[in-house]
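Researcher: Please translate sequence to structure tokens.
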Amino acid sequence: MDQENKFTQENPIPVDVPSPAPPETPDTAPAETIPAPPAPPDGEGSLSLEQLEAELKREKKKKNFASAIRNTIFTLITVAAIAVLVAVLLLPVLQIYGSSMTPTLEEGNIVVSVRGSEFKTGEVVAFYYNNNILVKRVIAHAGDWVDIDDSGTVYVNSVALDEPYITDKAFGECNIELPYQVPESRIFVMGDHRDVSIDSRNTAVGCVADEQIVGKIIFRVWPLADFGIVK
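Model: Translation complete:
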């Protein structure tokens, strides 16, 4: 018995005992696998150099087109403004109303006048009268003597005027004392349609002062069939 105990203690019999597995920790847990995104098909997801150049060209064309539109609009506005200034200051454009200048000018005609200070006998002028613009023909100047006989023949300084622009002579609406001397800085005017025209023969209109003058009628621009110089 003592020998058995001694043998047991001195010569133990080996026994295999499995050691416990260490607990899993987050550091030792297997990593979750994330699938990679699929590769884009050829030609998608990126632009080639040629495509980038084409896109840049399109953007440049858009900018150039917008710039051209702005420049065109600016040019048109500038031209229109200049045309208005020229029309108002230098070449007033007028439309004819009434029949006092027939057959030279008919109602509805559009004419262009030019500003000036010297007007010859026989020229057609436009002038302001009571917030309107009248168109008549120059007959005489300051200091001239005007006379009209019963048949409608007009005399300036005792010389009968040659008037090929009228078709019918008439004494017309005359209430001034004849012969009549034209006042200083004024002109004596008459319409070509002598029977109906109210002009310097009547005190309602009288002679025209220099400051009333709009300009000399030089061109008829409408109707196109009658386009040309006004004589």
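Researcher: Any highlights?
Model: The radius of gyration is 53 Å.
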